[in-house]
Every structure is written in C-alpha cells, then in structure tokens.
Design a protein that fits this description.
Elements: H1 3-13, H2 18-24, H3 30-43, H4 49-55, H5 61-74, H6 80-89
Length: 96
C-alpha cells in the first residue's frame, strides 16, 4: 500500500479501519504486518497502542523497525518507556 493510499484510507474510513488494521498486524505476510502497524500509528488512536507494542516484538527486523516508528508516530505517552527500552536493549542490527 502506498503512503497516498494509506492516507486516503484513514481520511475516508477513519476509526472504522482500526479493527481491520489490528487484525492485519497478525497476518502471515510480514509486509502486511509492518504496513498495518505503520498506518495504525497514523490513526493516533490510543486503542492501537497495545497492538503496535506487540508488533515491536515481531520475528522480522523490518517489522520491528516500522512498529517502533509507528509507536512514536502514535503519540501516546505510554509509548515512551517501551521506546526507551527498545533503544537500550537492542543490539546492533536488531532492526535488520
């Protein structure tokens, strides 16, 4: 999904897209998981927090990386501690 498409998705469907995005974060396809986490961040909806935090523990580095970025984009104060923890406890190459 392109950034433009993701923007339209959020504008047209708003919070109605939250549940499908949360479900997509468990998809077997890693590209679906990391794009879903990314879009969840842009919803700025506090209900997305738990899902994005879970995705930061994904088995694929690219998914973890985008989930960490999405956690910052989400703008939820609860994300501060997990983001600090991710930065302190991840070794070199943890996101790749």
């Amino acid at each position: 999904m392109s950034l433009r498409a993701e923007g339209y998705l959020l504008r047209w469907y708003g919070v109605r897209v939250l549940d499908p995005l949360i479900a997509a974060c468990s998809d077997p396809n890693m590209q679906v998981r990391y794009r879903s986490a990314w879009v969840l961040g842009y919803t700025h909806d506090p209900r997305a927090y738990e899902t994005i935090v879970q995705v930061t523990q994904d088995s694929h580095g690219f998914v973890r990386y985008d989930a960490a970025i999405a956690l910052g984009i989400l703008g939820d104060e609860r994300a501060i501690a997990p983001l600090i923890s991710l930065m302190l406890h991840t070794g070199r190459g943890a996101f790749c």
